[in-house]
């Protein structure tokens, strides 16, 4: 495939994925809007959000992070050598279902105790226990959905995985609309359980087709790829990393449960808005992760370094531009989205203040997701990301414990932003010695420049808001503010000179090369070169086994990431 075709394939995959993810995110917003309309920010919504901790935790663990970071490289290696994932699926999936079912039953039985641990000061404990038991089913359904999603992504079939949250939110909305008048907030928990089943259903046809189309692995390969001890050693650091990262939410809700009723809900509504640009910024990272895994498998660390810098530059620009807008227009954003029904102007004021603080940590959230993928794309399991995230969690906990009682939810939002930003800096600093020759000084300069540009764009947004005045309808202020902030960001980026934008272009050119040959000698931005000496293994080119292509001469999974077949998106 030519470089132009590669770029087109990746672009179309990202575009189609973006449409599906955007639809799922949009329905997620509708879900949150409906909950806010029906129940406001109250003791009932606090109770549901404690139960929401289960799907909120198992989603990154079993769909977005741990499962993907484990399964995509494993299946990619199987495809790269011409084997299929049938043996892996036949051995690992039944065991996974049994283990997760046991975990779900434990959560159902221990629901009262777990609720008391998560939120000791909760007002509506009974509703929380009831919702907690219903959402426990997601431990099983998310696990199966995540297994399917990772397998499909490794085959570069990104469409069905991209649709899972669309299906999930359809189920939640259906039960909220139909049952909320009868069972109250419990309707949302019933919807979570049923929506999670739809996540499996939407992927099942493509998953079955992948298994039928792939060749069976030789007996020796089957034993090697599904050996339980190897799988456990590989997954343990990822699980610990993911749970530790999610523990930031546990810390927030633990301290917020001792504050006024509705505090957990205010934090949640603000976080949902702030997460949108972060999720969209990681879209490109999800699409390019198979490519990163293949570069790691090839031992081409210079190519890995270019991929990391390019993805970080794109993600940073996206989240910092969004942060500038959110800080400038948080009150209007929350008013337009939530202020109706049971959601009051006071709820808007409290949620908007939290959103402005959360926005300060958006870059850290995005950078953590990017850097962690680079660590976990390696063959050897690594505990470094978990250690770095634990350091950030310690900062979050310390700030929350010290200031939650006096500063309330704003202190908890600031603790979140500070902790995740520290973790991001530590992860990025650890890339060079542990992963690839990443040009840390140039990355730091790129990010700092983008932060200054974002600060200028935020000032322009605040100026636009002041000119329009409080009497202007909120929707008009948002439209004019988005245009003004985006224009200021673009103009300041151009005025800042060749920096991050130039790095995106050069990184793209180096990744594909004018001849389309990946892995050939080229000079990195840090002055190093890509040659056999950069590879993570010591096997000379002449001693490397010849790559085995499947029948028909097709590249298995598009060189495991260099190409994305047309029409295949992501979650």
Question: How does the SSE layout of this entry go?
Answer:
Layout: H1 3-39, H2 43-51, H3 53-64, H4 66-80, H5 86-109, H6 111-118, H7 125-135, H8 138-154, H9 159-162, H10 164-183, H11 186-213, H12 219-225, H13 228-256, H14 263-281, H15 283-298, H16 301-338, H17 345-359, H18 362-376, H19 384-407, H20 409-434, H21 440-468, H22 474-495, H23 500-512, H24 557-561
The outline comes out as: globular
Order of helices and strands: HHHHHHHHHHHHHHHHHHHHHHHH
Report the radius of gyration as a whole number of Å: 23 Å
Secondary structure category: mainly alpha
Outline the biggest β-sheet: none
Protein name: Lipid II flippase MurJ
Transmembrane segments: 12-30, 92-115, 127-150, 162-179, 185-208, 273-292, 312-334, 354-375, 387-405, 411-431, 443-462, 474-496
InterPro entries: Lipid_II_flippase_MurJ/MviN, MurJ
Region (Disordered): 516-571
Describe this entry's structure for a reader.
By secondary structure, the protein is mainly α. It folds into two domains: 17-226, no CATH class; 237-440, no CATH class. Helix content is 78%, strand content 0%. It has helices at 3-39, 43-51, 53-64, 66-80, 86-109, 111-118, 125-135, 138-154, 159-162, 164-183, 186-213, 219-225, 228-256, 263-281, 283-298, 301-338, 345-359, 362-376, 384-407, 409-434, 440-468, 474-495, 500-512, 557-561. Helix 4 packs antiparallel against helix 13, helix 5 runs antiparallel to helix 8 and helix 14 packs across helix 18. The two termini are 25 Å apart.
Keywords for this entry:
Lipid II flippase MurJ; 571 residues; disordered C terminus; mainly alpha; Lipid_II_flippase_MurJ/MviN; transmembrane helix; transmembrane; single chain; 78% helix; 2 domains
